[in-house]
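User: Earlier you gave me the apo prediction for this protein. Now I'd like the version with zinc ion bound, so I can compare the two side by side. Same sequence as before, with the ligand SMILES added.
Assistant: Got it. Here's the input I'm using:
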Amino acid sequence: MPDSIDIRYVATLARIALTDDEVEVFGRQLGDLLGHVNALAELDTASVSATAQVIESRNVLREDRPAPCLDREKVLAQAPQRQGAFFRVPRIIAE
Amino acid sequence: MNARYEAVIGVECHVELKTKTKMFCGCVNAFGGEPNTKICPVCLGMPGALPVPNAQAIELIIAAGLAFGAEIPAFSKFDRKNYFYPDMPKDYQISQYDMPLAIGGTVKYWLEDGTMRECRLTRIHLEEDTGKSTHAGSGDGRIAGSSYSLVDFNRAGVPLMECVSEPELRSGAEAVAYLESLRRTLLALGVSDVKMEEGSLRCDANVSIRPAGSAELGTKTEIKNMNSFRSVERAIESERARQIEILSNGGRIVQETRGWDEVNGVTHSMRSKEEAHDYRYFPEPDLVPLEPSRAAVERLRAALPVLPAQRFERYTSQLGIGSKQATQLVETPSLGAYFDRVVACSNNAQQASNFVLGDLSRLANETGVAVAESAVSAEHLAELIGLVDAKRINSKIAKELLARMWDGAGSPAAIVEREGLAQTTDPGAIAAFVEEVLSAHPSVVAEFKAGKSNVMGFLVGQVMKASRGKADPALVNELVRTKLSS
Amino acid sequence: MEYIEKSAAQIAHDVRTRVRSAAEVTDATLAHVESVEGAVGAYLTVLADSARAHAARVDERVRNGEKLALAGVPVAVKDNMCLDGSRTTCGSKILERWIAPYTATAVARMLEAGAVPIGKANCDEFAMGSSCENSALGVTRNPYDLTRVPGGSSGGSAAAVAAYEAALGMGSDTGGSIREPGAFCNLVGFKPTYGRISRYGLIAFASSLDQIGPLARTVEDAALAYDAMAGFDPMDATTVDRPVEAAAGALREDLRGLRVGMVREFDSAALGAALDALYRAAYRDLERLGAELVEVSLPTAAYGVATYYLIAPAECSSNLARFDGVRYGLRVEGDDVRSMYDRTRAAGFGPEVKRRILIGTHALSSGYYDAYYVRAQKARTLIAGDFERAFAQCDLIACPAASCPAFEFGAKSDPYSMYLMDYYTIPMALAGLPALSVPCGWTTPEGGRVPMPVGLQLCAPLFAEKLLLGAARAYEAATGHALARRPELESVRA
Ligand SMILES: [Mg+2]
Ligand SMILES: [Zn+2]
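And here is the structure of the complex with zinc ion:
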């Protein structure tokens, strides 16, 4: 198993700005953790199926029936920044 | 265009499903409306909220899959596609990754001249739509140069069908014909409104070129921001020309996303950073897998309507209707079904098509009532066609009758019977009218004899009038001519 | 003994029969909260006004003849559960001022049964932790020794119940977050089968593991709360639609006819002489109550922590993406959306949350997904399989609830040593099994001033909550360990 982690890249994906100190400390701590989790490589999982859910339910669905919505003011009142009836965000730089 | 190269085109469509509610919550699924009024904890990605899938959306996807002959696997699941964007409430989209609801299938489509073609589908899957951002401060509403954006989440969580084609299309025109067929089929199924202008159909195209006859695929680009079928065609053709130009000059195509610039008629690079593509898909732990029962799938299959492509093929090859008229008839599912009923009762497809696409469609346009919903039942129209075919009435009377039927007059045969409108085909009776008209207009007769043959029309008209429109026009013509020449 | 020290069952009985009003119980509780909160710090928000309003409504319902199972019972709600109109923070700066606009199903069911919400209890930020020290918004102390942690992540709920600031606590358990604080605070901490209690309105940490459950001073109280909360919820597709057997009325007197599995790999000798002696005594007590002790093996359980620290962070990295400064919660402005995200999340999340988001993002990222996430899911299959085989030989499993009693603040500064706190509770969470901790004695930790409680963990097969609670009740009644000591509150009363 690979056991290094590119903290800066991962932080970029996760949208968390890290200080240089954090890069250093987290890099070390998470490197340690990966060392521990690498123990899983000892398990023979070649013929084992993956478990995403422990319950065996299937097709838990809802009917296509309308339900009440939230009050717009109640929601927008908590928006970090609003403009009229909209949520406002800083400019989006196309990626 | 350069004959040494051929284009290889695949189309990826996102189609908003026509359900009453959103994909994972009970908020109403409807276009437009006051911003941020159709929102709840689930579709706003509030802390603690959980999705529960809309059963109807799943059925619509399966129905679409079946309509295109796709395989409906016994097991399917939802996955999360992780990326940050302000109009995506949870900053992940619930989508389907490796186990979609439908795999494979084929879209049959036809070109303007009626040639049938096929394009295979890779897959159809179900996901949720995002909200809508309006970019402000740039003056033109474009994201480039904007200083901030405003977000409306009414659309967030609307069920979305993603339908990916194999790269089997060869031109912009083929791509549009494919999209038209896809659109008509989804409309016939009631899966979606499929309105590009309202965003319920959106599509991107993958375009590459290669030497004609080559089996290898060239480097492709993905074209976005196409807002109409016309722009799809223009964008693909423009991109094809651009790539050919590059290759012809010894250049090399860069794999990238390109935006279509409608105003300047060119595509431009929207190159993205590499990391943006690490979507970190994993099974959605808030949902359990789907196992559509065979019985449910068969029930949906049995309920499939006649599909536009089937209809088109039948109209053109069996009924002998022209490609253009046949296309018009399949365009609106209810119109096609109406037409089918008329044909079933009248056995005169050409006449039925003429009436349905001609007078009836005109009346529908004028009154705003759809043909299939009008007072003219298919049976009554067939009856009218029967009366014309049997020469019981002439076409002028037929037109008048149709207008009265539109207003609710009912059975045309009954009106003809009641009002004595049956066409007069008795030569003796018509001859009497001719006699009457010629003697009433001696000066006109004299003009004719002096060589002014164009007054004949006036005389025929007068005879028709005298017969109150019921005389067989062909017979009137013949008798007037004979009489004048004698 | 003050009235507020009564069990939830007793309070509900008294309110139902109108011996006491819910209003009186609520007032007494709020007064007590005021006097001890300064020292304990169980709550992030005390809901005095709304608690009184709820109590008044309960009294009215009682007058109308409603038979409420939890009539007037003061409850502490972990602050990762939504209660309409209440501040719901998850112990995080990113939600410090967020007012939930809806109520979690489990909370709604407690209220429907007559419970009165006293306040929102502190927890490790986003329920990530085993000591409550990861809360960004407050310090919660163990009522049995204020220099020690209450456990976590449901530490606030546990401390509140232990300090009589509520008769019942609502907690959530992802890898041990109900059972471990239960053990640390001399309580019954019960995690039901995954899917038994709705997660709707529970702010997600790791969706496939999170499960709400009660913290209580008696098994009967835990059973009452469980009965109120359990059952299918149309708002949570992972709840299981199968009948819930009421547990409160099915508590047992003995363990005759039950085989209790002793896990070979969980030998308590590894925990030191004092704990070993306590656990051996506990197992003997089980036997004395009629249980047959059998040895079972969970060979892959030792991989539980490694498995958990891939799956839970992977899910949390995605679940916590929504805290982005757009719709609610903290925002730190930036030149563009991207820098707004980066700064908001840097300022809003504490170090433990960041660590887990980072490791989870890594485990899911391209090139690592199979090696980490998928492999962990396969290990999860093996662990669940171990339990299945074990339960072919036994009806219940007994083992330690934690590897040590409550420790002093700052004692586990290395993240991994904190992760190991959940060594005995994680495997059950990975397998989705119902499990609880029940007090099994006292030990004075090295350097400690006073004896601290120790918890015995009992675990049952999927959906065997009734059996599990019934057996725990028999053990509790026969041993009475919880009653041996009282929290040290007299000295701290304001
Ligand atoms: Mg998509
Ligand atoms: Zn909604």
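For your comparison, keep in mind: Chain C touches chain A through 73 residues (CB under 8 Å).
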